[in-house]
Amino acid sequence: MSEYPWIQELLQMGGKEEQFSEKQLKILEAAVEMFAEKGYAATSTSEIAKKAGVAEGTIFRHYKTKKDLLLAIVTPTLFKSVAPFLAKEFVREVFDNEYETYEQFLRAVLANRYAFVKKYLPAIRVLWQEVAFHSEIKQCLQGVFTEHVYPKFARIVRHFQEKGELAELPVDSVIRLTITSLAGFLAARFLLLLDHNWDDEAEMERTIRVLMNGLRR
Amino acid sequence: MSEYPWIQELLQMGGKEEQFSEKQLKILEAAVEMFAEKGYAATSTSEIAKKAGVAEGTIFRHYKTKKDLLLAIVTPTLFKSVAPFLAKEFVREVFDNEYETYEQFLRAVLANRYAFVKKYLPAIRVLWQEVAFHSEIKQCLQGVFTEHVYPKFARIVRHFQEKGELAELPVDSVIRLTITSLAGFLAARFLLLLDHNWDDEAEMERTIRVLMNGLRR
DNA sequence: ACTTTTTGTGAGTGATTACTCACTATTTTG
DNA sequence: CAAAATAGTGAGTAATCACTCACAAAAAGT
Fold first, then answer.
1. Span A184-211, pLDDT tens digits
2. Residues of B at the A interface (Cβ-Cβ below 8 Å)?
3. Can you tell me whether residue B166 is helix, strand or coil?
4. Cα–Cα distances in Å, from B17 out to A162, A212, B8, B14, B75?
5. How much is the pTM?
6. Burial of A157 from C-beta contacts in 10 A (0-12 / 13-18 / 19+)
7. Which end of chain A is more exposed for a tag (fewer CB within 10 A), N or C?
8. E strand segments, chain A
9. Which residues touch B50 (CB under 8 Å, ≥6 apart)?
């Protein structure tokens, strides 16, 4: 019933070890589920309170506005979405030892983000849906991407181009094609989810193979 | 100011030649713009009326409920989204003469859908955003896909596999990889729109080349 | 010209909205 | 243990919501 270990994990940002009361976690849990299902604007605070088994006033004790509640959910989700690129050792891992090829690197990233999406799917749904309507979220996402993800990604691509594994396409194009391929797989698997019989392992393998065949020189 | 020729075009479904009054078109125009910008649930009928320069009652004279107004916009958009696959001559065009290779076929489809998205972007945004929350829309989309798009697409893929152009991957995987590649391009171009300097022609060319390199036997 | 039908209006409706506040229950602290 | 701080409550509030309806203007039909 009350499965807020994963919510607690999601909200634990970096070094901070905030303490959440029982009721507060219930509120967050209810909010994530309802936002994911009906959307932020179509979900009322009274509904959230009822589902969380809490008085409506309790919500506003912890979050000044309804939007604050949304941001409390979305902001940590956003950062964990690009988490691998935020790690300091990340670039070193790629160059030094772990991954000798872009293909190995891709495989690791995809497996990692696959597990991430699987774990935090409801929160990711909320982020994905609401980023279109709230400029604060969009700006935050763009900021994190251009500041942390893009430069590291670009360096990695250039490295494997110089090594001769990747074709001499524009770096931006390689990044775009890589991200849309991986994101396309994850979206098909977790958002559309049309498939009954879908072999995850095999489909991931095919996705990477087709992409690599395309990008190889 | 009043640019409802494209709205009128969008709503003209197949053979029907419905007549829209001036005010009705103003309502539809205002609704599309506001739904795309703020989302359906966050847009009030009074706002739409004000923007359309119309009394609020006029909206409900034409559309029984707010949701009816949404569906009046979204349903035609949905059908036009998969329009090429609905055409009767479509499969014949591919087999008989026009396209000798899967690559040519891809190029034609991408160019066609690129123009479509560019023209009807606001309506597509609305469809894309609200399909997640309204089961009627989702079911309609799934129905059209499995009934019209999928079988024709599968036949085309099989044809070019037998011809030896495409690798012997599972047909479903080829379709998925094709759609996510093309949709990924369009999403990057029109939804994320991160482009400062983005050469559409070249990027389309790269997208198709990388995909074809991946799918070729 | 007269009747009928369609289109447009805007004040009014009850329900619901996000949010407040005076108050109680619980926990923390000196 | 007493005091102070924190967490939780639920009735209450003004604003806004989608929608109605009695009526007026315009268009169409005869």
1. 999 999 988 766 788 999 999 999 999 9
2. 37-39, 41-42, 125, 129, 132-133, 142, 169-170, 172-173, 176-177, 179-181, 183-185, 187-188, 194, 203, 206-207, 209-216
3. strand
4. 59, 49, 10, 8, 16
5. 0.93
6. buried
7. N
8. none
9. none
